[in-house]
Design goal:
By secondary structure, this protein is of the alpha/beta class. It has two domains: about 300 residues, Peptidase S8/S53 domain (Rossmann fold, 3-Layer(aba) Sandwich); about 45 residues. The protein is built from nine helices and 16 strands. Helix 5 links the parallel strand 7 and strand 8. The C terminus is likely disordered.
Length: about 375
């Protein structure tokens, strides 16, 4: 069986200092969304090579972690990044808004660091499975739960145990966001798949540049859900540094952080916890079409200001069926949660969950 590895990525440059809102963060319109939400206290699990938890842009964001690799003599409590990839991903998700360095898409999230890949960027499937299950079962000091899992890794094998771990995480109402992979040949009709990204239960992310042009390396397949900036992305790097990297690994954390921003905002509006199916639908809704082949862009590029909110005057339940990706049908329910509708809203929410699960599995239209 093949091992799981980081997707090949390019280190464009490394610098000691930085002071900017990265262009990728601006491209998904995160600063505009911060007026309503910075993802405060939403827990995102970063399953990767670990994280430099001493980095000044990240030290206040990390809520905990665990090491599942032989690195550091297998010490489970040492999840320090000895590669650089995980620190970069973590910064794009949630680097603090501290007046220097960089800022992430969701600068007030909490990051759970799950080190499953060693210093050379490789690991075994069992470590990935154990890392996913750890994140799904983890509880914080105040009873916090992981709401989003971010994985910028993959391998060629469709392993039933890996698939089941992903399904179990989704059943815990966790949104699982995965990179599509960097084996693309710049041809949309050539299908490239990597796992867990190709599983229908995950949100699979492809990469574009800052102008919305597909990255030549991005994998294309019918399971791609959306795209985000993944070319020349600046973020945090070990030893208090900053680096520009390219890959679908860099696109994925934009969406993971974006999901956290949407989670906090919408749960404040609705007054209840969103299901995984509802989060998935909202992430897909917050996109803008780039006019590309659906195997490249899925629903489009993440845009945290793209979706038009329901006017306050529309108090009653409304449902609509929308087609997403290559033939997927997603039933999205919108409803108010004022007192006389709470029971009805809960019933409809369960119905929506069931419908989305069924439609994801059937892959209509293919």
């Amino acid at each position: 069986m093949s091992e799981v590895r980081l997707f090949p990525f390019v280190v464009e440059s490394v610098t000691e200092t930085c002071n900017e809102i990265p262009a990728g963060i601006q491209a998904v319109h995160a600063p505009e969304a911060w007026v309503e939400s910075k993802g405060i206290d939403v827990v995102v699990a970063v399953i990767d090579t670990g994280c430099d938890f001493r980095h000044p842009d990240l030290k206040d964001r990390i809520i905990g972690g665990k090491n599942f690799t032989p690195d550091y003599k297998g010490d489970p409590n040492n999840y320090m990044d000895n590669n650089g990839h995980g620190t970069h991903v973590a910064g794009t998700i949630g680097a603090s808004m501290n007046g220097f360095g960089v800022v992430g898409v969701a600068p007030e999230v909490k990051l759970l660091i799950v080190k499953v890949l060693n210093g050379d960027g490789s690991g075994d499937y069992q470590s990935i499975i154990d890392g996913i299950r750890f994140a799904a079962q983890w509880r914080g000091p105040q009873g916090e739960k992981v709401r989003v899992i971010s994985m910028s890794l993959g391998g060629p094998d469709d392993l039933p145990e890996l698939h089941q771990a992903v399904k179990d995480a989704v059943a815990e109402q966790i949104l699982v966001v995965c990179a599509a992979g960097n084996d693309g040949d710049d041809k949309p009709d050539t299908i490239e798949r990597s796992y867990p990204g190709a599983y229908p239960e995950v949100v699979q992310i492809g990469a574009v540049d800052l102008d919305g042009t597909p990255a030549s390396f991005t994998n294309t397949n019918s399971e791609v859900d959306l795209v985000a900036p993944g070319v020349n992305i600046v973020s945090t790097f070990p030893d208090n540094r900053y680096a520009r990297l390219s890959g679908t690994s860099m696109a994925t954390p934009h969406v993971s952080g974006g999901a956290a921003v949407l989670l906090y905002k919408l749960e404040q509006e609705y007054g209840r916890q969103l299901s995984e199916a509802e989060i998935y639908a909202q992430v897909c809704k917050h996109t803008r079409n780039l006019g590309l082949d659906k195997r490249v862009e899925g629903n489009g590029m993440l845009d945290l200001t793209a979706a038009v909110p329901i006017p306050p005057s529309e108090r009653s339940l409304s449902t609509r069926v929308r087609k997403y990706k290559a033939g997927y049908v997603v039933l999205t329910g919108y409803f108010e949660t004022h007192k006389d509708a709470e029971t009805f809203a809960e019933q409809v929410s369960k119905m929506v969950d069931r419908h989305i699960k069924i439609m994801r599995e059937r892959k209509w239209g293919q």
